[in-house]
Amino acid sequence: MTPHRKDTPLERVNRIGRELSRHLELQRKLGLEFLPIPALDALPQPEPPPAPGGKEELLEDLRRETLACRRCSLAGTRTNLVFGAGSADAQLMFVGEAPGYHEDRQGIPFVGRAGQLLTKIIQAIGLTREQVYIANILKCRPPQNRDPTAEETINCYPYLLRQIEIIEPRVIVALGGVAAKKLLKTEAPTGRLRGEFHDFMGTRLIVTYHPAYLLRSPGEKRKTWEDMKKVRDYLAASGRDSRKL
Ligand code: SF4
């Protein structure tokens, strides 16, 4: 008997090719049309593009929508829309009442004397204005800085709610009675509401004095400092990510 000669590499490749071809022909006869390939999720995936509908994009869409708003007469008397400013990723959000003269001129919330005091309050807890988000209940200035009417507040409030929904802050600070009453649906005065956390649709909310009031009553600054320390401590204790904040 002739001893079995080992295949050369070329013969081995040809043999495998013939076997593969026979196997495929058999599969075709059995009705197989496509070779199975690994599931897509088993293959290395390319880096996903930046998610459309990210927070910044959603806020910008909302800003454009608000810019076109004519729900109340303030659209006809304002100089600029004062939509809000700060980080779309902010974990801390401040909500005031309505834009004043300087805000209306510049289209930026809290830039007058009260705004400068708010900047100091933010810095006092180790943050910057760019790290937080600042908005008002009303996006347009009421003439002569009068109080917002109930109708204006009802019309404008949904925009603030959507800002909060997009940003998802961990803490909201209501600055003054108008913001506090609207957000907490209460008639209680600021002095009774401040000093403790409230629940706002699952988010912690603290009430403190409006910086404009603090300019008139500097003796109350200490209480606002107490409120802000609570905010700072809560964010620190609940593992804040200082890069995002
Ligand atoms: S105050 Fe609010 S509701 Fe009124 S026009 Fe401006 S954005 Fe619209």
Number of domains: 1
CATH topology: the name is: Uracil-DNA Glycosylase, subunit E
Strand order of the largest sheet: 1-3-2-4-6-5
What is the typical, i.e. mean, pLDDT?
87
Low-confidence segments, given as residue ranges, are: 30-44, 241-245
Number of strands: 6
Q: Give the distance, in angstroms, between the N- and C-terminal Cα atoms.
A: 85 Å
Per CATH, the class reads Alpha Beta
Can you walk me through this structure?
With 245 residues, the chain is of the alpha/beta class. The protein has a single domain, classed as Uracil-DNA glycosylase-like domain (Uracil-DNA Glycosylase, subunit E), CATH 3.40.470. It is 44% helix and 11% strand. Strands 1-3-2-4-6-5 form a six-stranded mixed beta sheet, sandwiched between helices. Strand 5 and strand 6 form a beta hairpin. Helix 2 packs antiparallel against helix 6. It starts with 8 loop residues before the first helix and ends in an 8-residue tail after the last helix. The C terminus is likely disordered. The site of iron/sulfur cluster has 13 residues, from helix 3 and helix 6.
Supply the key terms:
245 residues; alpha/beta; Uracil-DNA Glycosylase, subunit E; 6-stranded mixed sheet; 10 helices; 6 strands; elongated; disordered C terminus
